Amino acid sequence: MSRFRAAPAAALFALFALSGCSLFSSSSSQPAVPCPSAVILRSLANTAVFGPAPQRRPENVAFYGLLSEVDRKCEYTGDAVRMTLDVVVVGQRGPAAQGDAVDLTYFVAVTGPGQTIISKKPFTDRIVFDHDQIRAGVTDHIVESIPLRGHSGAELNVLLGFQQSPDVMEFYRHFRGR
After folding, report:
1. d(C-alpha 155, C-alpha 64), whole Å
2. What pLDDT, on a 0 to 100 scale, did the predictor assign at position 67?
3. What is the pTM of this model?
4. What percent of the chain has pLDDT over 70?
5. Which of 141, 159, 167, 178 is deepest in the core (most CB within 10 A)?
């Protein structure tokens, strides 16, 4: 019978341990400082690389690109935040694909209050396909130091998207869902 009384106590202790709570409060603990958000812009999450034909139609796409996901971590150092981003970039062969590789360029932009762009950098990934492979991808590991300039991390946003040409923008206006 005493075994059943010990089990709830053990379960309660395990719950406190797993949740990061403490049975003993400490007045010196600091609240967690939020990381800036990191968001892939939906309208710029896809791109297309066209083959040699002049028409910008689905059958003339050599490769598609997709910004699949982004994970972020941050660490505050003085008046800056050091962001670590892991960005998954996926390529897919299209009907007009020739060759086994494609270069896909996306940007990482930091915005402040009022969506003011603080910085913007391009990143290019080479996606290499095995001869019979339709999809391939890479994970970019990016580390950037972002000056806070008097702002809190919660006031900043990190936005990601493919740098689109007018041809690609027009293509997606007509052929959504690709």
Report:
1. 33
2. 97
3. 0.77
4. 80
5. 159
Residue 136 lies in a domain: yes
Please indicate, yes or no, if residue 8 is contained in any of the structural domains: no
pLDDT, one tens digit per residue, over 49-103 is 999 988 899 999 999 999 999 999 999 988 899 999 999 999 999 999 999 999 9
Cα–Cα–Cα angle for 152, 153, 158, rounded to 5 degrees: 135
Q: Identify which of 63, 57, 52 has the alpha carbon closest to the alpha carbon of residue 105.
A: 63
The residues pairing with 11 across neighbouring beta strands, listed in sequence order, are none
- DSSP-derived letter for residue 50 is E
CATH number at residue 169: 2.60.40
3-state DSSP assignment of residue 60: helix
Residue 5 falls inside a structural domain: no
* C-alpha closest to that of 95 among 53, 145, 127, 126: 53
Domain, as residue range, for 80:
31-174
**pLDDT value, residue 141:** 96
Residues forming beta bridges with residue 64, ordered by sequence position: 48, 92
First to last CA, the chain: 63
Helices then strands, counting H and E runs in the chain, come out as 2, 8
How are beta strands 117-128 and 37-40 bridged, if at all? Answer: unpaired
Residue 134 belongs to a domain:
yes
Gap between the Cα atoms of 40 and 87, Å rounded: 10
Name the token pair of 5: 């009384």
